[in-house]
Amino acid sequence: MTEKKIKIIPHTHWDKEWYFTSARSLVYSLKGFDEVLDTLDADPDFKCFHLDGQLSIVEEYLELHPEREEQFARLVKEGRLIIGPWYTQPDTLVVSGESLLKNLEIGIKLAEKYGGHQSIGYLPDSFGMSSQMPQIYHYMGLKYAFFRRGIAKHLVDNREFMWECPAGTKMFTHNLHHYGNMAYPPNGKEEIKAYYQEMIDKLGDSSLSDTILLYNGEDQKPIRKNLPELVKIGNESGEYSVEIDTLENALASIQQEYLDKKLPLPTYTGEFTFGQFSRTHKSIFSTRVDLKQLNNHLENYLSNIVEPLSVLASDAGSKYESILIDNIWKLMLLNSAHDSIGNCNSDWTNEDIKARYVKAKSLAEELVEFKMREIGQQVKQLDFTQFQVYNLLPNERSGFIDIELYTPYKQFTILDADGVETKFVVNQVDEVTDSYLKKSIKEIGVNNELDADWPNKISRLYRVQITLCAEKLSSMGYQTYYFKEMGDEYEYKKSN
Known about the structure:
- The chain is of the alpha/beta class and 496 residues long.
- It is built from 13 helices and 16 strands.
- A five-stranded mixed beta sheet has the order 4-5-7-6-10, with helices on both faces. A three-stranded parallel beta sheet has the order 8-1-9, sandwiched between helices. It has a three-stranded antiparallel beta sheet with strand order 11-16-13, with no helix packed on it.
- The longest helix has 32 residues, at 347-378.
């Protein structure tokens, strides 16, 4: 009979919020993470500790305990403190692909600051898995996929398999039994020996490998300081081996065992959304629709407007505000965490989530307005009333666009950069001279250095709502238009 190898993964699964608020989670982390660092330094037999798989909790902890950063980074570099690769642990089925990529990009970047990250798509508690995850992991340089929820026996009859995405990328994958299957081990000598045997009997048939993975930890659970002693007791029996190990080492060992023994390794293609062994909470797709809509809107706004417009502005000579954009994404990623985006939370927690969306929306919209202003100041000045219409798609585009603008002319036509009259429909005209003129001197967006006297040319101001026919806008580009005053005899079409 082959000897079973027990590998213990010491960890804590740190939900940033759920029925409790993020404030509570943060306060409790301060002592908990201190104890992790101190225990690792005090006990060389405590080989490693897995500080969940997300960097947001690290960022907040070190912001409040900056005196720990050097110690933290040293332990990461020594391979004893395991972090990353995510910024937050997302729900892969509710958020967008771009959000998942940004989550890993920001998480990996932050982890590298401290010394590196585990090469595992580590999602022990997310409520199901998108079929695209192997492709995303491969693109971000990860080696293994790892999750708990969504598996079913009719899909894969083994905890290890190759997971193939629709594009063809394959990845060695481990489906864990439960990240708390060793959360409460007994301390007694005979009791712990019996416990190890019980776990071998319980889990031994779920894998072709001779390695049993036990996870010492659970939600917000502190480090088990006497774990090395429990390991020593387990090795006294001689019937199995027990050691503390990192998850990445354990998965590499299991994968090698499959290769060496030529064990069959099935391939599965598709998503994992079944609740046979653990709940997937499919009802969260429809909870708090208002927040789901905000999330969807902002994901698209950031991906398709904020970032491409910022690139366009950068090409025109403006600074690309990478830190601000990342900070906006961080607000979104905090909300994309598996226990947040589902919105099956307390009212207090959902209010916190909504507040982050509101802040992200405000920052994103202000950045867009500012970048359009910066681009406008770099454009050749044809007229002090000129404005730009943008196409941020990767292909040429024509179409209608609804615009609200300010103009000094009550009767007007609109010309393009070549002086050709452009088709448009006026939907509404309101005179706002008294309430908006002085303010709008700073708001129209022209370069005052080129025409410092332009405010003196304005005696009246009108707010107009028009539908403009924009034709042949170049990909990732813009077209300049400007107003031309017409006499009273000029008639333009007005919508009904």
